[in-house]
Amino acid sequence: MAYKRLTDRIEELKIDNPRVASSIKWVNIINAGKDEIDYLRRNYNFNLVHLKTAASSVSFQRPMIFKGDGYLCLVLHFPTLKDENIVAGEVDFFVGHGYLITVHNNTLKVLTHFFSLGKKSPDSLLSYSLESSAILLYEVLGHLMDDCFQLLDDSSLKINEIEELIFTRQQKKAVEKIMTFRRNIINIRKIMQNHKNILQSLMEMESSLVEKAAIKKYYSVLVENSKRIWEMLDNQKEMIEVLNSTNESILNDRMTDIMKTLTIFSVIVFPLTLLAAIFGMNAKYMPFIDHPLGFWMILGIMGFCSIGMVTFFKSKRWI
To answer: Does residue 233 sit in the same domain as residue 128?
Structure first.
């Protein structure tokens, strides 16, 4: 195994098993610019259109696969967490006989960690035993998809947190977390929705070192993982929708109770306001006006009306 840092943005890892005649070169490029594209153009016979996809200034909104002369070019996206929000991290792959090139902007830390693992412990890689770029691509994709499972496991914990907030009557906090979670689930679904088709097409990849049946077996695992991810996303989407409906029901119940209280209060106060307005008209011959206890008599009438309204509401079980 030999590691080289060619430039600040280009790293090269040579995976060489002495028991196998061939070797694999893994070139990892971060934030590819003009110099990095020129490096690929000089050292590999890639189509210029495919090279442009690797530029950091170019971003695709959907996964793609291109077949070149003796190589495959892949554009794939994987979800990553950034400031509590899920965003898409793009990785461009060039895979051919004896080499794998990954181009990304370093948002997917799991890819950087796997490259570091290859530097420190190359014999732990499956590709070290088989020395096939197709198998190395399988391992890279496998680690990226494992990171998706970790994100979904974290999402399950957040669902439990949201449920706890809802049933401890912390609706305002729950609403904010529900909206963030729903947006993240939608983003993951957009990112992962076409992966299965791309992975199925990779099952037909050919290698001079590994039998086609073996490649199909390895990549079928990735296809199954993509299906499991989609099933987990469907389950989490349904769960958050149910929790959102539950939270809205509790909020509506609370609003109904508030409106009910305000309505009862206004109905009780209404006759008092009416009596105060009537006796405040200063009309001639108003009852109780000239009586020594007139003020207290009017207050008594108001109190009687209030008690009558409260008694009526209680009899109807409105309060």
So the answer is: yes
Which of the listed residues 225, 251, 277 is the one where a domain comes to its end? 251
Q: How far apart are CA 74 and CA 54, in angstroms?
A: 10
Q: Which class for 303: exposed (0-12), middle (13-18), buried (19 or more C-beta within 10 A)?
A: exposed
> Would you mind telling me the total number of residues written for the chain in this entry?
319
Give the number of domains in the chain: 2
Domain boundary among 234, 251, 268: 251
**Cβ burial, residue 178 (10 Å; 0-12/13-18/19+):** buried
DSSP bridge partners of 96: 71, 99
pLDDT in tens, 224-265: 999 999 999 999 999 999 999 998 888 888 888 888 888 888
SS3 label, residue 141: helix
pLDDT in tens, 117-157: 888 888 888 888 877 888 999 999 999 999 999 999 999 99
> Does residue 98 sit in the same domain as residue 163?
yes
Helices H / strands E in the chain, number of each:
9, 7
What is the spatial distance between Cα 35 and Cα 7, in angstroms, rounded to a whole number? 10
Rounded to two decimals, what is the model's pTM? 0.80
CATH code for the domain of 129: 3.30.460.20
